[in-house]
Amino acid sequence: MNSWSYYSSPAIAIRFRYVALASAGRLQALLAVLLAIALTISLGQPTVCNAGQSGAQASEDSAEKDSANDVRVITYNIRFLNRGDGPDHWDSRVDSVAEMIRSGDVIGLQEATRPQIDDLLQRLPEFDWYGVGRDDARDAGEFSPIFWRKDRFKSGQSGTFWLGPDTTAVGKPAWEARIPRICSWVTLQPIAGDGNPTGAAFAVFNTHFDHQSGLARLNSAKLMLEKIAEIAADLPVIVMGDLNCRPDSQPIAVLTAPSASNDTSKTVRLVDSITQSETKPQGPTGTWNGFKQIDPEGRIDYVLVRPNFPRVLSHLTADPKTAAGRFASDHLPVVVVVQP
Predict the structure, then answer these.
(1) 3-state class of 38 per DSSP?
(2) Going by C-beta distance under 8 Å and a sequence separation of 6 or more, which residues neighbour residue 285?
(3) Can you list the domains of the chain with their CATH numbers?
(4) Parallel, antiparallel, or unpaired: how do β-strands 146-149 and 334-339 relate?
(5) pTM of the full structure
(6) What would the pLDDT profile of 121-160 be if each residue is shown by its tens digit?
(7) 3-state class of 296 per DSSP?
(8) Within 13 Å of residue 241, how many CA atoms lie on the same side as its CB?
(9) Residue 320 burial (CB < 10 Å; 0-12/13-18/19+)?
């Protein structure tokens, strides 16, 4: 009569079959089987386990090394501190916004007021920042602040210009806009763990175009190119912002138009990072939700870069929620991983 027996160890399970043996040879056959099992365990198990562990560790080490220079950039309109926002008031959203910022390396915010910035800084001691209020170049009005990780970057030059014919006209609306608009910028130098420079410096611009005046948006786009050429002519450039216009709009066309071969007046060309991503863009197609629902046609928040300078590895439109399951802001953050 035939039957099945099993032998198992932490690394191996061996199944074998035996048949009824003659009385004289049964013991000898069984001993031979047990000896074969013992040899398989002693010779095979260490080799298989050790090879698997070292291979996985090598893969992790390689991934960490490959991503060491990657920079996670986030642009996020966090909605100003509005006392009439009810269940979407800042107090209900601040922790979710802070958690979103914490996931990045360089972050540009729009509509941030000084109390909101202070709330975030209390929760994010690992970040440094630069920005000014648009009403008085100090603390009044909305900021377009830039945050960066202290252990990864050291700031160089920084500044803010007003979006208008006179870029130094503090607090002055321009081009049919009813409120002043600004762009804040900073140059960042990557640093090693010991604080020494490593890699190339790059410039970050963060802005918020007007939501009502088409003329203001168009002229702001033209002005941005002029100021980028003036401030960061030879640097990798990242432009972040709520531009209040869709991808097929004239301001976006101005910002991303290629220069003619004989045109030396335009020294800066930008591209939409979503078109440059080396991996398929992820997340919703729109970035506006109004605290109600995502508008799939409402992509108005952007990260723009110079062509391949920096290199764009991925593009994500994220959808963070509060503890109550509501939108963390009336805009969605855009997360882009670049390699300057």
Answers:
(1) helix
(2) 296, 297, 299, 317
(3) 3-63 (no CATH), 68-339 (3.60.10.10)
(4) unpaired
(5) 0.80
(6) 999 999 999 999 999 999 999 999 999 999 999 999 999 9
(7) coil
(8) 30
(9) middle
